[in-house]
Amino acid sequence: DNLPDQFLQAVFEGDETVVFTSGSPTNATVGTPSVHTVTIIDNEPTPTVRFATSTSGNPENVTSTAITIELSVGSTLPVAVDYAASGGTATPGADFSLPAGTATIPAGATSTAITMLVVDDTLSEANETVAVLLSNAVNAALGVPSTHTYTIADNDPLPALSVGDANVVEGNTGTVGALFAVTLTPASGQVVTVGYSTADGTA
Fold first, then answer.
1. Are 50 and 144 a contacting pair, CB within 8 Å?
2. Cis peptide upstream of residue 33 (ω within 30 degrees of 0)
3. For FRET with 4, which of 53, 86, 152, 195 sits at 20 to 30 Å CA-CA?
4. Is the dihedral angle over the CA atoms 188, 193, 199, 201 positive or is it negative?
5. Smallest Cα–Cα separation from 179: which of 161, 195, 163?
6. What is the pLDDT along the chain (203 residues), one digit of tens a residue?
7. How far apart (Å, rounded) are the C-alpha atoms in residues 25 and 54?
8. 75 pairs with which residues across the strands?
9. How far apart are CA 2 and CA 20, in angstroms?
10. HEC sequence for the chain
């Protein structure tokens, strides 16, 4: 009952074998079979490989972030799993970089991490997401969560909107249109709308 935790934890090993070979007997000859194989069947469940959390996020000026992949239980076998960005509102290349690849958890370890790079732009835009998926696990079963959603929080100020004056020469009949220039400084990554109205001046 007082054993340290590391001796109480189950470790997946896979089936193992022990080979017994007969030596040279005294007053007898070696019979057949002289070699016997004993298979030790592992009774621990197959580990699952999964993301440590289903969500995470940072402001976009955090340009490198680690996403952790973990095992449900330690294993004496190396575990590999494929990962790829698939879905979300962020644009690959423009907002982030995460080439598809294979993550490996070495034998005896319980986790590893993949690195995603984030582009820190100057556009005011909505928060964006990247969905990363796990697939094709080797020496483990695919666990839950197998999808991780990373949120890139925009850190850019809202652009300033200004309206320029307009001058027109009035005619003697009909109406004359006036064109007002509406300007954003700087440009925005979102569609910008603004209402307008008129008010009496000296006219």
1. yes
2. yes
3. 53
4. positive
5. 163
6. 444 454 344 555 555 666 666 556 665 565 576 666 656 555 567 899 999 999 999 999 999 999 999 999 989 999 999 999 999 999 999 999 999 999 999 999 999 999 999 999 999 999 999 999 999 999 999 999 999 999 999 999 888 999 888 888 877 777 888 888 999 888 888 898 999 888 877 76
7. 63
8. 12
9. 35
10. CCCCHHHHCCCECCCEEEEEECCCCCCCCCCCCCEEEEEECCCCCCCEEEECCCEEEEECCCCEEEEEEEECCCECCCEEEEEEECCCCCCECCCEECCCEEEEECCCCCEEEEEEEECCCCCECCCEEEEEEEEEEECCEECCCCEEEEEEECCCCCCEEEECCCCCCCCCCCCCCCCCCEEEECCECCCCCCCCCCCCCCC
Whole-model pTM?
0.70
The pair phi, psi for residue 39, each rounded to 5°, is: -100, 120
The CA distance from 6 to 1, in Å, is 13
Residue given tokens 């194989």 in the structure block: 37
Residue located via tokens 């022990």: 18
In single-letter form, the type of residue at position 81 comes to V
Place of tokens 């590893």: 112
